[in-house]
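haha ok so turns out i had the wrong file open the whole time. this is the CORRECT one, sorry everyone. sequence first:
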Amino acid sequence: MVYYEIKKVFSKASSKMALALLVMLLLMISYFTLHDEEYVHSDGTVETGIVAVGRLREDRKKWSGELSEQQFAKVIEENAEINKAAGNQPVSALSQKQGFYDISTIINRAYTDFGKYDYTVIDSLIPADAKNVYPNRVTQLEEWLDTHAADGFSVQEKAYLMGQFKKLETPLSYEWSEGWQQFQSYSISLFTVMVFILGFLVAGIFSGESGLKADSIFFSTYHGRRQAILAKLVAGLLIGSGIYWVMVLLYSAIVFGFLGTDGADCMIQTSITGWMSSYNITFLQQYLITIAGGYIGIMFILLLMMFVSAKTRSTKFAVIIPFIVVMIPSVLAGIANSIPLVEKILGLLPDQLLNMCQLIQYFSLYRITGEITGSLNLLLPMYGILSLLLCPVIYQVYRRTEVK
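then structure:
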């Protein structure tokens, strides 16, 4: 029965076209991921693609190791020497600085006001300033929490953030980690594409018989209100799970195959987007959280679609669910900054699971049983449990359908 339900979905020409579109979009996302890196030659020409990645990787691996005070001082000193030698040739200087670009980014973040970035800050520093790189990270947060911009946080939440920042063990270790960073940056594009296409595929699983006016025959069969319904549910789960993991694994193979898996054990704070994160995790842990979040988020949305399909017996109502769940919160996010309650509510919606890159960067905190925690610690178990609960609900709703 499960095989029959899956065969019904993929026997349609529209379903085959949807799969072909998904593969094309995967290749497009992969292309942009791999061509996001640029290598600047001394003459000013810019190179992108696999060759550029190889050059950058080779240059930056020379600076791998512990990000100690001495290493920061060496970068500051090297930067000053390059500026002096280059004179009025900024392109030549930029070309020579690419090897320690990631480390200079950390230094710049440490000496720029919270929430801002100035890539020229390092030019005004001296080697002695290296000792303040890590302390400045904590100081910046502390000063920001004392401003009106952080008035939305309670005393307990501010204490939680300070505690998380102070827990980060330093000195950090640095390695080339573009594979992990690029996957994280483009994962939202991949997950968004998948949720719409997978939604299109499963939207009609429960409403198909109603659309064909064959529901009376379906429910009158011996297994119509039991095994046949279970087969529909299992088919939807298998289609969603199978395609999701195939796409994620293919994308991972492409990204890591070309960009490498170096830096898996490095903390995300060694990246420009992770420097001010309150989650003290490695790039590998971030990757696992991201694909787990994407899976749970997409499966919850697909189950919600199947519930609507089973309840209304309408494919049209079911197929708009991804638009409501994914697009509307994005629109409302524009006013969330001015209304704390709206921001709190939006932070717990399922679309957040598709955008772990942003979730890990920002401070989204909640109080649960008297304890403060980040939204990341709530979303994964909450929607995992809700997804499991939706399965028997869908089964019972469709089983009790009345044929008129």
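The chain is about 65% helix and 5% strand.
again sry for the mixup
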